[in-house]
Recover the amino acids of this structure.
């Protein structure tokens, strides 16, 4: 199998990049099912567009039922059964979940959004939830059958998602046997979930991020009534199967996770999981777009030969394959680091901060790469690329969502620099990279970063982008060297 | 008015870049109408999606009627009245047409597709059509009222658009009082046009591009029957108002333009017009996306201030404004050169070949810039960028079509290198650039191009992209220096 | 012109049925514009489906903007300019408004919904509003240009529209300089209107219909903020251009019309206007469906002749033309009676009660006729009748809405019997019918009605339908005799 | 179980009407699956609308692939497995097929269209196909697993479906190892079927219906290429899952069924199967609409009690249940008669002609009843009836298609009278009805029919409708007496 051949299947590519892959049988089964069945379902769901919200039933009872194309459940439940959530708890490792997500999102990038937010609900509950809360809710999230509960992570309000300290206006007041939350969540993914983690400010708490706390909010109240309301679903350009909506909390029953004053740490830990997912999905999507371009380029003839055999395009395929490997190495490193630190609690270790830096680099770099690759794959298809009839344009739409969700590039750059500045996280990273391949380029990069910190603050921010981009590229390429052994094999 | 303020209106930007703008009143009126009325119509048409094809009327008569949202006609006819076609003939200049297109496509990038192909029908008819053909058809294309005929330029068939020599299988046989054409056109923009120019191979002509000829094909036969058939309309991700379809020619009446053996030259001359349009539209779209981002960044508050005032974003705005100016300078230079050479016939002058090179550079560079800018503008909008409800995502879809139509980047790079290699078109370009600002960078670039030609053919093609990109960027930046006078002013 | 020919235009038919038609020029102009321009717009709007609701602007500000296909405004504003509302006030007559509605709804049955509810807002304001309220709001509703305000009449809540006494849960509390209303309206037509009349129960008022009052609720509060909220728009099978939605009142500023304890009378007066509109629109729609069937039957050939010339179909056309004339006579009689009594206030005259009976008969009979005729017209079209591509199926969908809005047949039957039982309204009706053509059939009918009242209550209701149907048919046929003069002429 | 309770399930109703029901387990399983799973799938497919046609694959190869919502296959294949086609052959009886269709179409009326046309392909092949043709094709149509082939019956062309003699312009010429067909089919249900029966005129055959012959046309040619082409799919108001399109035959390989000069008999035999299906589906749909109305009326409260308990509505439910029983009796009688005569070949028995009359009466009466019932059920739902969100409006759309397909009422009336006039088919029918319950009403009806035949031809046709309607109603009511035993039981 040549390198290009590994593009055709997610597992082939994973095998060429990751030395030890647990649960190969499960992954094989996923891949087989998806390539035979799932792909056509996923296509049909994308065509069908945003699910419907049936707010009231025929008898006038508010139910906020989400009407999916039915087969969405087929796809969705499958991943839960295979272990995108329960394996993390049971095996005490995130590796199987992210391997599953890579495999699945090669076929449907949107579906990993519910998986990620369900994981992002189960993990803090298991880590910070009281015994009583765990008794009441954890088992449902970890079920291995189709009765599994879904989770959701609702932070963003109408004023935006980046400055949570200012934007979260949802208030929690003591009440019931816990808290009662009131406020509107403006970008709520996976609405309809049986359980959500929700950022809110306990009444009277400090302003800014320090005053935020994290609450569990179930779909139904203790008395069986709806506990939150779905105002509407949003029509997005991609991840069309996932119901993203606006949620109204009206004295909704909530349960505090951890202590009220450490909420922001819990929120960031939830974001860590999503950001790493976003990176994994981005690389899988890039691979998928390349796989589509490859099969097209093998069949399309121009000027008497396959377009794959024309030097310019061939060269682009090879270069991009290398870039894919680098992007994967960076994303996978973020997975591995997260897997080391995910059970830490504040105050965090140095390694945790290094993880945060790598996660920012990976989120940034892989999403950029996914968009660029999807664009390129569309161009390989020529005019067919712009037609809804074929799927090249879909990858382009899906990729762009990845570049925005979980924080745009701006956010990654600024937060990445913050963790370097405050926690010196780059030191540990450079040390790690040097162990792989000591090089002049790495030394120069480190100096450039340090010089950058000496700029006046305004300029430091203004000029941050090219430095961060260079750092991400170099980190990715260096990490990719570790798996070089395998390039020869393939 | 600061530089950023020029982003808000197409005319403000044009005024800051072009010394002498003819017909300012007309352009002002266009801009006024569009910002008050047209924008909402354009939005509604994009939401409504692809027009419908009503193939048969209720009584079973084939009519191939295209059912538009009615207001599409309001938009469409307006541009024709303002002169996107008739001015070229009447004023013997393409400048007014392209200024109009820039102004209009700031508000609706798709609408310039019908204008361009109508121009691409009128121009060869006026230049190469017999007196009889001109008598019969030209006046209708140049009407200044709503009875104006539309044109269309149909080359591409199912085997693709880049290798026309192999892909055009439409055959023309002598018949009627001209020719009868039979074949299928697979990517036919502006179907429903009253008159099209169509590439076909006269029966018995040579294979390859040399055997192609260009024919006029009216919508209706002399006896009033349909002369071509619309098999279906295509569902595209953008330019949703424009009916792009598949056309069946079945002994369709056609009229030869020019001589049968010079057809390929005529075809390429038609492409010249479209490629330059594509560049102009790309820059206008990039400006529009930036204008949207600007108005958003002025209103959105995060971390206590407008996001426009945050150093990283501010810096990006300023950099991108410079890049917009460079891209415009390159596109506009292609307009000016085309305006000098558009009446040439083969054998062409050196200046014509330089135009071709500049047109390739401009098509490539401006489309890349448009996609990149639309992506960036989406990110500035954060989560709102992915919602169909707001228009940031539309510019992204529209931009991607511009990157594909009239030849993808691959095509521009390879054809650009061909005209450099065969016609030494870069010599004249470098000479021109040196006159603007002689620089080491230009000298180095010229050497790099010459070195590149010494590579073995396979490698020459494989490694063409970075050289071409660098050449395009340098050409754009150098040309932008000419209008530097104006940056100060604004 | 034969009788069938009058089907082709609304005015031709009106001229054959109504002796004196005021403002013929206006109606002529409406008909001309609609047949040339409006029809295509109306078709396109139907295809485009439900308008969009943009709840928040890009900057997070709630605006509840309704996004129409832009040309909806072209259609809509035209009718207001022509006088569907202002003429009623200025000319002190409803005749011109209903003639306009007949003419317009021949082309677009849905558009008369906004007209009717605007009329239903202006009339009670002019009749019952305080001088201050009239000063503040009336002139805007009566404007003759495109700045005219629209009205709306919101009664129905989630528990249904027939039993308002039990279903209206919206509460009005004194506050501001009037009242503050809180509650949800579930079927709110023409949401987005600048001014609505709203049924609500003043806090502490009696239960049942007696405790209801009617309030004016403007779109914006005195301080410029939104005064009511649009929760969502509903996807209906017809009247696709009209935004019907759910409205949330949250301490919304309201102004009492009339006295608090006579609210139910005002509500019923508003319903009178709508019910009569519904009848007029139903007849116009039936005529339109027949016109479509006629033009089809004239062109379609089967078994060697036009299907119009085949005896069975010919016979059906002639029968149905007579039925159309009867239905029109009934509807028009309801218009004429309303025009006599619309300024009455409780306690009402006997004539008012006769009007109510005729309005129930007309609403019931004309809607049944519209559905039946639309079904028949679809069948005339054969297989083409079921295709979205042609418009036969649209009339079917539109007709069915008319059979439901403003009270289904059940409601008309029961309320019709109530006004007969309580107010002996049938006596006056029979007297009137006898004056036209004294007949045994009328005598028998009167006896049958009287016998019916002697049944035990349960049975009286159970068996009401066939009696009511017979009464409606006989009334319609008898009234049609009055315009018999004209059948000969045509 | 009361009578109304039988409305809730198709099998309950069947059990109350049919003495012996074979394969109860299979029907039970169907009903169980549909009420648990199928209903939600069917709803989602209706929302998704017309399937897509992917005419060309990415590589430019024409494939005419029909893109369904994937779960359509789940639904579709299930019915084939259960035996809607294979049981007819294997058990030598149509009873099981029509019982299955009743059960299934209670949940999804459209899905029985493919079943019917597949049956309409298998039956003539088994009856008239040469041994060679049966060897080649029959087994595939009778498979009991998901590899089953689908059939299709394509008669109608652009000039219409009622006058096949004039409208069929498809020509068959000897060629290949059979015939080559060329022409366009305008209303082609179940396009994409692996095998179709197609009406065409052998070159040189007589004009009119006598010159028509019936051909088998497979989807793929012997050499594997496409044998027919799908020009487009049609957007219908109902049966949204079924791909109805236009088919182009271009020298398509065809195989003659029976002799060339008896084609019209074969065509009519195929229509017999469809007409009986249409009747069965109509009754099932009426039951379904009533079931929906019932569950609504049980829950909705107005004026202090369930609307089901209000006398007028209660009375309507009871009346309509009786009407449903009559309609079923008529439809089921057409099934039983067909089951007796379906293996007959021309010249046919008297019983065959009686079947034809009953089939016309049943098709006419049940479709009218289905539309009327669906309309009534919508009205029971009040305003909710017009919303796409709930399903009441769907039954209305579906019913109207049943009133048009397989011949509108006009067609049934005229053809029904023809078989009475030419074959005296009513004599045998009256004899049969008299055996059930001799009555004055039957005697009067027979006299009325005989008197009708004495009218002059033009008048005979013009006045045919009321006689036919009365005959249908009386026949249905009389046949319903036979199952009266059961009304008591329930």
């Amino acid at each position: 199998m040549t390198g290009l051949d590994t593009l055709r299947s997610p597992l082939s590519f994973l095998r060429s990049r990751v030395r030890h892959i647990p649960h190969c049988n499960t992954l094989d089964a996923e891949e087989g099912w998806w390539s035979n069945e799932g792909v056509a379902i996923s296509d049909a769901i994308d065509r069908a567009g945003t699910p419907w919200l049936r707010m009231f039933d025929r008898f006038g009872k508010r139910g906020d039922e989400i009407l999916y194309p039915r087969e969405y459940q087929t796809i969705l439940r499958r991943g839960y059964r295979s272990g995108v959530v329960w394996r993390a708890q049971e095996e005490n490792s995130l590796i199987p979940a992210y391997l599953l997500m890579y495999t699945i999102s090669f076929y449907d990038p949107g579906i990993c959004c519910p998986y990620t937010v369900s994981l992002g609900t189960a993990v803090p509950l298991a880590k910070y939830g009281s015994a009583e809360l765990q008794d009441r809710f954890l088992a449902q999230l970890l079920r291995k059958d189709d009765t599994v509960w879904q989770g959701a992570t609702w932070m963003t309000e109408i004023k935006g998602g980046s400055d949570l300290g200012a934007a979260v206006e949802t208030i929690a007041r003591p009440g019931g046997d816990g808290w009662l939350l009131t406020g509107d969540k403006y970008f709520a993914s996976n609405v309809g979930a049986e359980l959500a983690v929700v950022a809110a400010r306990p009444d009277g708490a400090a302003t800014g991020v320090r005053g935020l706390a994290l609450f569990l909010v179930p779909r139904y109240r203790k008395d069986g009534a709806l506990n939150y309301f779905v105002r509407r679903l949003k029509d997005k350009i991609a991840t069309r199967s996932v119901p993203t909506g606006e949620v109204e909390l009206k004295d909704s029953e909530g349960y505090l996770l951890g202590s009220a004053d450490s909420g922001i740490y819990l929120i960031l830990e939830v974001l860590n999981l999503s950001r790493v997912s976003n990176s994994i999905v981005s690389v899988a999507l890039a691979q998928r777009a390349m796989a589509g371009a490859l099969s097209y380029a093998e069949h399309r003839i121009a000027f008497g030969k396959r377009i794959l055999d024309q030097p310019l395009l061939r060269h682009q395929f090879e270069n991009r394959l290398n870039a894919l490997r680098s992007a994967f190495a960076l994303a996978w490193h973020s997975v591995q680091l997260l897997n080391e630190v995910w059970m830490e609690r504040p105050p965090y270790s140095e390694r945790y901060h290094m993880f945060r830096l790598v996660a920012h680099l990976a989120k940034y770099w892989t999403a950029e790469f996914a968009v660029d690759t999807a664009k390129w794959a569309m161009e390989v298809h020529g005019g067919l690329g712009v037609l809804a009839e074929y799927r090249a344009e879909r990858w382009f739409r899906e990729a762009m969502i990845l570049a925005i969700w979980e924080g745009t590039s701006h956010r990654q750059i600024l937060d990445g620099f913050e963790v370097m500045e405050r926690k010196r996280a780059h030191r540990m990273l450079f040390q790690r990279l040097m162990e792989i391949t000591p090089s002049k380029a790495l030394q120069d990069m480190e100096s450039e970063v340090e010089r950058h910190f000496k700029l006046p603050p305004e300029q430091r921010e203004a000029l941050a982008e090219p430095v961060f981009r260079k750092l991400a590229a170099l980190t990715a390429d260096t990490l990719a060297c570790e798996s070089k052994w395998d390039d020869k094999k393939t």
